Structure formats: C-alpha cells, structure tokens
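Working notes for the structural subgroup meeting. M.R. asked for a predicted model of this chain before we commit to crystallization trials. I am recording the input and output together here so anyone reviewing the notebook later can reproduce the run.

Input as submitted:
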Amino acid sequence: MLNASYMPRRFSSLFRQHLDPFTRAWADEVYADRRTDLATLLTFRELVEHVEDVLEELGWLLDERADAEEICEGARRLRGYARVRFQQGVLLDEVARELMLLRATLCEFLWQEARGPADEDARVLREALRCAELFFDELVTEAILVYASSLRPVVPTRGSVWPPPRRRRQP
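Returned structure, recorded in token form:
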C-alpha cells in the first residue's frame, strides 16, 4: 500500500477524511475555468452535490481492487448524475469538462498523498490512477449515453438504448 504515514490503508477512508477540502479545491478549479458556464448555471450546492457519491464509488472500487468490468458497472451506478446535469440545462461538453476537472483534481490529490519513496507505494499509486482514469472515462461515456438518449430521435449506442422502446398497449 501507499506509505502508511501519509495515506490510510483504504481509499474510501482517505476520500471521506478529505472530502470538504477536496470538494473546495475542485469547485475552485471549476469556477476558474472559463470554458463552461457551470458557475452561473448552478448553485454551489448543485455543483458539488454529486462529488461525495463519485468519491464513495471510486473509493470502494479502489479498495476492492476492481477489474475493468466492475469499474464500468460502478460508473453506470452513477448515471443519475448525468441525468441531473441534463435536467439542469448543462451542456454535454460542460459535463465532460466538469468530469475532466474532477479527475485532474483527484489525480493531484493522490500524488500529494503518496509522498513515500517505496516501490510498492509507486505501484499502488499507479494502479489507483489507472483505475481512476478508467472510471472517469466511463462516467463521460455514461453522460454521452444519457444525453444521446434524452434527445429525440433516439440515438442508438452500443452501451444501451435509453429510454427503452415503448410497448404498444394491447386493446
């Protein structure tokens, strides 16, 4: 594991411990980024309300050393985040940018926490970063699916067809 003096044995504990300062640091990045209108579209509460769920899911996946399939399923469980953003009028590229900033903030946070020189520390950090990147890529994919399925006509995708086709009522 990463150096015990700097990082708890479990990522979920680490994320819970640092949730508020992490969320503030990420929100500062969002507000500083002029490529989105998130700061004017959303209240602070609306902006940050999903961060805890994202970190909780990612922490669990990292703690369990989830494989790629489990990571994809974890991202699917957070599909509601993209639905909420769609309903709030956030554009798809803004959702993608929001997730990119969240991933960058998380990666920076993990690098700061992993200050130990041990080879084992580097291996664990590398694996955590790899999983986090896959997780955020899948979150972007889920957002694309939600936006594509929310617009008419229905856009077919490989991941799913949402909403499912309506059944005809039987007379």
